[in-house]
Design goal:
alpha+beta; rod-shaped; 29% helix; 25 strands
Length: 529
């Protein structure tokens, strides 16, 4: 009985000693000093220079194509069809009480364009009519001539017996044939006006009118009068086009429409994404000189804008410019820059969600399990320093000893345009992490490549929701310009949104996206000229 008691006592003592040893080991594990290796010195340099204000230059350039057929139709309606006038008497020594009148009718107009010159032509047809009586001198000369002829036939007194020749009324007419050609070399002035630079040429066929043996050249008599008539019409049209306020007024309307903020994503309590607004502020109006080809007169008009993303709607101040900037011909389309700022606190949350609580190797193989307890991202230069607080626990012995330390890993933020994500590239272990491996043991080093690979695969910022919302909202704003009316069609669309660039300072990561599309204006009917 005594031996049994002693044996039982021994077993209890051994169990107590083992438990005490195990508890002591755990206490040593818990109470052992944490790794104190700090972030590499480069991360403790003064903060990076702050990013410039989050704005991006954007541009919208629209070709306004005015069909030459529309110009011809409007000219056909506006130009007078009938012309008439009086000419001076070019043979006053022969013709008295002369009335020289002319009238002309234009035919259908034709329009053509080539090498930046617009040409409109129309045929002219009409009549020159001369009425009057021969002068006394012309009558005496004619009588003497007749007397001489008749005297040789009827006798010397025949002229006396017939009497003096008296032609009181004379009426003669001739046809007018020709055409009028009007040319325009339009130029845009900086004060929002169009200078048509019109010129005209009257061409008449060479015809003559015989008045009592005297030739009257029809073009010589009529052309100066038609030139004057056409010139007056040209001056009226030029002044009307030059002073037309339509270009300026329409530009003011589009300027005001462009000056606004549009929501990029929801702002309600149920919105899955943080509220973002795109502020668009036009800063300059631009235009290229008109181009004329066989089909259209095309004027390039555009706006340069500052665009920035804000967390709340704003009311930008956009004064309309007094002048339009004339620029060389440039590409057309819509290019809107969208700078999106993401605080590094959000980047920390993102990477923490992907890494914290995960144990590596993930399949449980290996002598050591390394669990990530926290993540901190610090910008430095053109890279990010990711500091991982990890706990390593060995698995070879039943004791399960472990330690904590901070592992520092460098990564360079890169845009993946195809996947529309922000990811880390050039992942490498910082040399300052050697101190951590002194605490964790060499076995933990073998796990680091898996953590690095996990950062490559999981530490990504998915920009698809932001990009999709931005594209949808910008497309809706551009679609406001869409129009289809009698004689006017506006095609406007956004067909792409690409990630263009990134930048960061000590607090913020900025992603710049660019929305691209087209804006085209087609004019097939003019309401006035």
């Amino acid at each position: 009985m005594r031996l049994a008691l002693n044996f039982k006592t021994i077993l209890i003592a051994v169990a107590v000693l083992a438990a005490s040893f195990f508890i002591s080991l755990k206490a040593m594990d818990w109470l052992s000093p944490r790794a104190t290796n700090s972030a590499p010195p480069v991360a403790q340099l003064p903060p990076l220079p702050p990013l410039p204000p989050a704005s991006k230059s954007s541009i919208v350039v629209a070709p306004v194509a005015i069909a030459i057929s529309a110009i011809r139709e409007q000219a056909e309606k506006a130009a007078p069809r009938n012309f008439a006038g009086k000419a001076d008497n070019p043979i006053s020594q022969i013709l008295e009480n002369a009335d020289i009148g002319w009238s002309a009718v234009r035919g259908p107009m034709a329009a053509a364009g080539d090498k930046d010159v617009l040409t409109i032509s129309t045929p002219l047809s009409g009549k020159l009519n001369v009425t009057g009586s021969l002068s006394a001198k012309a009558t005496g000369a004619l009588g003497d001539a007749l007397g001489s002829v008749l005297g040789s036939v009827l006798g010397g007194d025949a002229a006396k017996r017939i009497g003096a020749v008296n032609i009181k009324n004379l009426n003669a007419s001739a046809e007018i044939k020709g055409n009028v050609v009007v040319t325009s070399r339009p130029k845009l002035a900086a004060n929002w006006h169009l200078e048509p630079n019109l010129g005209a040429q009257v061409n008449l066929g060479d015809t003559n009118l015989n008045v009592s043996g005297a030739k009257v050249n029809v073009p010589a008599q009529v052309k100066p009068l038609i030139d004057k008539n056409v010139g007056e019409q040209i001056n009226i049209v030029s002044e009307r086009i030059r002073n037309d306020p339509s270009l300026r007024e329409n530009a003011k309307l589009q300027w005001a429409k462009a000056c606004r903020t549009i929501p990029l994503q929801g702002s309600g309590s149920s919105a899955a994404l943080p509220p973002l607004w795109l502020e668009m502020k036009p800063t300059r109006a631009i235009a290229a000189q008109p181009r004329v080809d066989a089909q259209n007169v095309t004027l390039l008009l555009g706006l340069e804008l500052e665009t920035r993303v804000t967390s709340a709607p704003s009311k930008p101040d956009c004064p309309f410019p007094d002048k339009i900037s004339i620029v060389p011909p440039t590409g057309t389309g819509v290019s809107i820059g969208v700078p999106i700022d993401v605080p590094f606190t959000e980047i920390n949350k993102l990477i923490a969600a992907q890494m914290v609580g995960h144990t590596y190797p993930e399949d449980g193989s290996g002598p050591v399990d390394v669990t990530v307890k926290s993540v901190n991202v610090v910008p430095s230069g053109d890279r990010l320093l990711i500091s991982l607080l990890v706990r390593a626990k060995e698995k070879k012995s039943w004791l399960g000893l472990g330690a904590e330390a901070t592992v520092h890993i460098w990564g360079r933020p890169m845009l993946d345009q195809a996947q529309q994500t922000l990811r880390l590239a050039d992942i490498q272990l910082a040399v300052e992490s050697e101190a951590a491996f002194g605490l964790l043991g060499a076995a933990a080093r073998a796990v680091v490549p898996q953590m690095q690979q996990a950062l490559v695969q999981k530490a990504t910022l998915d920009l698809k929701p932001i990009a999709a919302n931005a594209r949808e909202k910008i497309a809706a704003a551009i679609a406001d310009y869409q129009k289809s009316e009698d004689g006017l069609k506006v095609d406007a669309k956004i067909d792409s949104l690409t990630l263009a660039d990134i930048a960061f300072d000590s607090k913020t990561l900025r992603v710049v996206a660019e929305a691209g599309g087209s804006l085209n204006v087609y004019v097939t009917k003019l309401s006035g000229m």
